[in-house]
Design goal:
Blueprint (H helix, E strand, L loop, with lengths): L13 E6 L8 H13 L4 E4 L4 H4 L9 H13 L2 E4 L8 H6 L26 H18 L5 E5 L11 H15 L2 H8 L22 H29 L5 E2 L1 E2 L8 H5 L6 E3 L10 H18 L5 E5 L18 H11 L2 E6 L26 H15 L13 E4 L2 H9 L11 H15 L4 E4 L10 E4 L7 H12 L3 E5 L22 H4 L1 E8 L6 E4 L9 E12 L3 E6 L8 E8 L2 E6 L1 E3 L1 H15 L10 E8 L2 E8 L5 E4 L5 E3 L5 E2 L2 E4 L4 E4 L29
Parallel strand pairs: 1-2, 1-9, 2-3, 3-4, 4-5, 6-7, 7-8, 8-9, 10-11, 10-12, 12-13, 13-19
Antiparallel strand pairs: 14-16, 15-16, 15-17, 16-20, 17-18, 18-19, 21-22, 22-27, 23-26, 24-25, 24-27
Bound molecules: alpha-D-galactopyranose and zinc ion.
Zinc ion binds next to helix 6.
């Protein structure tokens, strides 16, 4: 697999934001102030033009590049880099009115009005041609500009369109995939409810009662986005070959199989808006961000990636938009860097005066100027990132354990009626995340990989809820275990094939009963408030454990039973089993265990397989990126409370006050400490100050 590792060339961690000078045309004082304040905040780069199509082409074939010429020049002169965004994320009104076919159609067959964003039809030849045209203009004009560091292609490309163009393209796609209608009918099991298709033209884009169709529709939509992206990038590749290309991802977004997308890109970038500061759950949420960052690292082939959007302050789209508590923002930024981010960019540089995002956090507030808590905090982050220059380009260390994250398994589970859905509907990701957290709490480092990755690089591969399991993947995983690896599978493993058809011969399929030494006869889905007791010696230290939501009724067929169900009518049936498989070991956990139980299992696993681990108090995390001059280490307290740790002889620097810490140390709430690099600035950050400087209204123009 291609490793998307061509990053913008830079010897430091990049720092910047989405920047919309097109919203401020004619306001020269503001535009000048932007540059001055970017320099003051330690900014290196900005994404420009994301929603600026009409500002660049106000009517068909009429181009108004002057403002962008001037912006590029201003950036070059100030030593700032541009991530130039071809503007496909939002269609121009004139194009949308001239060619309604570029507007998306919903499942109900209704075409959307003009407006909104991220809502073009990905199939429309008219839109594809228009996008290729404007991109050709941009690439020809700016493709070799000294300020250009990266092509930021589109923005959060996603969603689906049910227009005739898309449905016809879907049918053609199905012909290529299945060959004949007879094969398609077999794959989708369409004799059920009399759904047999007798002509390609009968196939709809949506029928929730046909879960094979749903799988293929999701695959098709994903392919359509990738081919849209390829079409969009073609002129950039041709006319600006020296400049890398990315498009910004959205973590584990449902409809986008980013493993596939990553093969088309030079580098990986992601948007994430963590909300760690929760009274009860902050460390769990922070580990949730680690999970997403690890996925990005995996998508980047283990190398660095770019954090393309986060908020320097609150967002405007939660029900409650909290300000970040002192230390939280700095920690979120450093956490991304510790996980391999070589850029930290915000949405957004400056708040617009109107529109949907006028109250979304930004580096520059409506008040203008730099006299704000957020600006001061951002400037301090800028200085810290400058001192972290030595980490740029360094790959984070490879972990001994990998979790497989597989969009296809998620789609199949999602599409199937029966298995109990998670509270947010996404049982698959929930299971992956829970196992990630439990592994990390057990002191194990974890990478995220795809189902077609090279497993042999890992000691243990965990495949949470790998519900759809094609025979080839099952064979590769079995071979990994046979060669001496550890394979951990959970409930909901190997129920269906790639068409969402159940495996025969008993679960887990295909032919995995022998590999795991068990048979999964049936599954009990529990009431929301129901708990089933689980007993096994390895849970004694956790004071026993229990399961919620899902309990499979397993039978050992050669595997050793490590734990059994201890309540319900099937009490005594095994629920955690271990099997020797040639040179390796397989483990099967047939129930959704409570957190402490799941952690206890991974502690047991680490001990049994002698895996390297580092146990720290709950919510305290240590990460490193290793360079030629040795490692740079990050130590975080993800909790809202003080936590005592013993640093021994090691010397860390606390960013909150510049203190050197060693030996027995009390970590403050949301503390961030560094070792191996001396932070150039010391906080306290502005929010610690009980008497913030009174805000003096400022003229928005700064001296040049
Ligand atoms: C997304 C978009 C941005 C902006 C932010 C707001 O990530 O890409 O344009 O709307 O959300 O949080
Ligand atoms: Zn369409």
């Amino acid at each position: 697999m291609n490793r998307p590792s061509r990053l913008p060339s830079c010897e430091r961690v990049l720092y910047g934001a989405d920047y919309n000078p097109d919203q401020w045309l004619g306001e020269d004082a503001v535009l000048r102030e932007d540059i001055a304040l970017m320099r003051k905040a330690g900014v290196t780069s900005a994404s420009i033009g994301i929603f600026a199509w009409t500002a660049l082409e106000p009517s068909p074939g009429v181009y108004t590049f002057q403002w962008l010429d001037e912006t590029m020049e201003r950036f070059a002169k100030a030593g700032l880099s541009v991530f130039l965004a071809p503007p496909s994320a939002s269609k121009p009104m004139w194009l949308s009115e001239l060619h309604p076919e570029i507007r998306r159609v919903g499942r109900d067959g209704r075409r959307e009005p003009s407006g909104g964003r991220h809502n073009h039809c990905p199939t429309s030849p008219v839109y594809r041609a228009a996008v290729a045209r404007i991109n050709r203009e941009l690439a020809a004009r700016y493709g070799k500009h000294p300020a250009l560091a990266l092509w930021h292609v589109g923005n959060e490309l996603n969603g689906e369109c049910h227009c005739d163009l898309c449905i016809n393209a879907f049918r053609d796609w199905l012909k290529r995939r299945h060959g004949s209608l007879a094969d398609l009918n077999r794959a989708w099991w369409t004799s059920f409810w009399n759904h047999t298709f007798t002509d390609w033209s009968q196939i709809p884009s949506h029928d929730p009662s046909n879960d094979g169709l749903t799988m293929d529709w999701l695959r098709f939509v994903n392919d359509q986005h990738v081919s849209f992206l390829e079409n969009e990038m073609a002129p950039l590749r041709e006319l600006s070959p020296g400049v890398p290309r990315t498009t910004n991802f959205m973590g584990t977004n449902r409809g986008t199989n980013y493993w596939q997308w990553s093969r088309s890109l030079d580098c990986i970038s992601n948007d994430i808006y963590p909300l760690h500061d929760d009274r009860a759950d902050s460390w769990r949420k922070a580990l949730g961000s680690d999970f997403i960052h690890s996925l990005m690292r995996g998508l980047a082939g283990g190398g660095p990636w770019l954090l393309m959007e986060c908020s320097p302050s609150a967002v405007n789209w939660h029900k409650i938009n909290k300000l970040k508590r002192p230390g939280v923002h700095l920690q979120e930024v450093l956490q991304a860097v510790a996980n391999g981010a070589d850029a930290i960019h915000y949405f957004q540089w400056r708040k617009g005066l109107g529109g949907h995002e006028k109250f979304h956090g930004a580096v520059i507030d409506h008040a203008g100027g730099s006299d704000s808590r957020v600006f001061r905090e951002c400037a301090e982050v800028g200085r810290v990132l400058q001192t972290l220059a030595p980490v740029a380009g360094l790959a984070p260390e490879r972990a001994p354990v990998a979790i497989v994250y597989d969009w296809e398994a998620r789609w199949a589970l999602d599409a199937s009626a029966g298995p109990k859905k998670a509270a947010d509907g996404d049982r698959y990701t929930e299971t992956c995340l829970e196992h990630f957290r439990a592994l990390r709490c057990a002191g194990l480092e974890v990478d995220l990989i795809s189902a077609d990755a090279d497993f042999s690089a890992y000691r243990v591969v965990v495949t949470p809820a790998l519900y759809a399991l094609p025979a080839t993947t099952a064979r590769r995983l079995s071979a990994f275990a046979a060669a001496g690896g550890g394979w951990v599978a959970t409930y909901l493993t190997g129920y269906v094939d790639e068409h969402n058809r159940c495996w025969r011969g008993g679960f887990p399929g295909p032919e995995l009963r022998a590999v795991f030494g068990l048979w999964n006869e049936e599954v009990d889905y529990l009431f929301d408030d129901e708990k089933v007791r689980v007993e096994g010696a390895l849970f004694d230290s956790a004071g026993g454990t229990f399961a919620t939501d899902i309990v499979e009724r397993l039978h050992a067929e050669g595997a050793e039973t490590l734990a059994t169900v201890a309540s319900e009518f099937y009490a005594g049936s095994p629920v955690l089993l271990r099997n020797n498989w040639e040179l390796g070991d397989t483990f099967y956990l047939g129930a959704r265990l409570a957190e402490e139980g799941c952690i206890a299992f991974y502690e047991y696993l680490a001990g049994e397989l002698d895996l390297p681990r580092l146990v720290l108090p709950r919510g305290v995390v240590r990460k490193s990126r290793v360079g030629a001059d040795g490692p740079i280490e990050f130590l975080f307290n993800y909790t809202r409370e003080e936590v005592a740790v013993d640093l021994g002889e090691e010397r860390f620097h606390r960013l909150a006050d510049g203190q050197t810490c060693r030996g027995k140390t009390t970590l403050r709430p949301y503390d961030s400490l560094l070792k191996g690099v001396l932070p150039a600035c010391v906080f306290p950050l502005a929010p610690h100050d009980p008497h913030p400087t009174r805000h003096e209204p400022q003229a928005s123009a700064l001296p040049r």
